[in-house]
Amino acid sequence: MLKGMRRGIEKESLRVGSDGKLSTIPHPAALGAALTHPRITTDFCESQLELITGVHASAEACLKELTEIHQVVYRNIGDEMLWCASMPCGLPDDDAIPLGRYGSSNLGRAKTVYRMGLAHRYGRRMQTISGIHYNFSLPGLSSADYFSLIRNFRRHSWLLLYLFGASPTVCSTFVAGREHELQELKRGTLYLPHATSLRMGRLGYQSDAQASLAVSYNSLESYGASLQDALTRHYAPYEAIGLRDDHDPEGTVDGYRQLATTLLQIENEFYGAIRPKRTIRRGERPLHALRERGVEYVEVRLMDLNPFLPVGIDAQTMRFLDVFLLHCLLTDSPPDTPQEIAALARNQHRAAARGREPGLCLERGAQEITLIEWGGEVVAACEPIAAALDRAHGGSAYRDALSHAAAALGDPASLPSARVLHEMAQHHDNTYVYFARAQSIRHRDALRNLSLPAEVEARFARMAQESLDEQRKIEAADTVPFETFRQQYLSPERLEIRQIA
């Protein structure tokens, strides 16, 4: 079973010019069609790449493919580079951040209208935050097993923020016009002195509307019911935004301001540190896929880009995630409650904003315990799992990853979040964009200088052309007006187990 463990990565990165400013160049045609390419697409904005590996039996193989995808990208984006950090570069005015474009098909137009809805609901700046999603599966697990894992992950996810958070600071353009509690480190640079991950704190992927959702992870049924309610319940502030506005072309896509006026437009809008997932068929709703065929894997969504690593993550980090997720699976996992869900949110915010604060305490039931003490207990409980993985795969790589984490618990200065601030102070005049730009240039040069096998380059060239051909086929096959397509896709019946033909 341990040898059957699989993982894959989805990694977001902003394309920036050599000056470190957000690119205004459309998604390069040489990279293929963002709508249909299986490995290279875009996320919220046209200049935010999403790089997707396949499913791999080892951390090394996963890292190898992620590196190759980066190499292919760098061969096709000219003088641009990928921003190495999770918090964005210096940003233009909100309206100047270009939404992702996916062609003229109904499916492609829906993806852009959805992004326009996100822009109206949350602002475009928030959507330019980038991160790494780690997809994990084991053979033979049931949906109930995966939900047991998810509940424990949510209980202990603060440990990942502490160990791997790498966004303690941000360019001031990110919060322009917003209330915040950040401190000024240098003109143009804001931070919190003990923060680990501003990306996962109150300034990151947060929503007052979604905060009202006490989504239960006790079963697929309860999770599905919570999600369906959010997908079908109209929300007054979003109704005020309106669905269409033919008189305001600047704030619309083809006259549309958003896909729907419900609390969530589609499933992807639900922000969470971890999600149950199932591969979907074209045109299928993700919730329907989950309900019909069960959970296939989990998607860990709280990992920051590590700005000290060329592709934002390394094999050692992946191995720690494997051990941590197995610990979440194998540990007793009682049902969650609304009270516990609220406490978990408070723990996440404390770890994100104050994780390195000496003596910081978290809530554990009715008691408080220091993050360091609790973290030590979790790491110690992972030791037999790391040993079992090493027996299954040979060597000591999993125990080494765990030992590294244990050492970091007692040495906050070694954490990525502390290293970012130290490097900024030592070499970059305490200025975030100077630091991230210098690191981005370093990684660009290193990746460009790596050799790329001709076979890999040729395979990605074929993939790009095939994706362009596939997009044209989708566009040619449309037979209904967009409004008909939108209504059919968003129909509540499509969320149920019986799919409408």
Characterization of the model:
Strands 1, 2, 3, 4, 5, 9 and 10 form a seven-stranded antiparallel sheet that branches. A three-stranded antiparallel sheet has the order 6-8-7, with no helix packed on it. It is globular. The chain has a single domain, classed as 2-Layer Sandwich (Creatine Kinase, Chain A, domain 2), CATH 3.30.590.20. By secondary structure, the chain is α+β, with helices and mostly antiparallel strands. It contains 17 helices and twelve strands. The model has no long low-confidence stretch (mean pLDDT 95). Helix 5 (158-164) packs parallel to helix 11, helix 10 crosses helix 12 and helix 10 packs across helix 13.
Q: Write down the overall geometry.
A: globular
What is the count of helical runs?
17
| Poorly predicted sequence stretches spanning 5 or more consecutive residues | none
Major sheet attributes: 7 strands, antiparallel
> How many structural units, i.e. domains?
1
| Secondary structure: helix percent | 40-55%
Count of individual beta strands? 12
CATH topology: Creatine Kinase, Chain A, domain 2
The SSE string, one letter per element, is EEEHEHHEHHEEEHHHEHEHHEEHHHHHH
- The pLDDT mean sits at 95
Instruction: Output the CATH class name.
Output: Alpha Beta
Give Rg in angstroms: 22 Å
Q: Report the structural category.
A: alpha+beta
Second CATH tier, the architecture = 2-Layer Sandwich
Terminal CA distance: 37 Å
Strand content: 5-15%
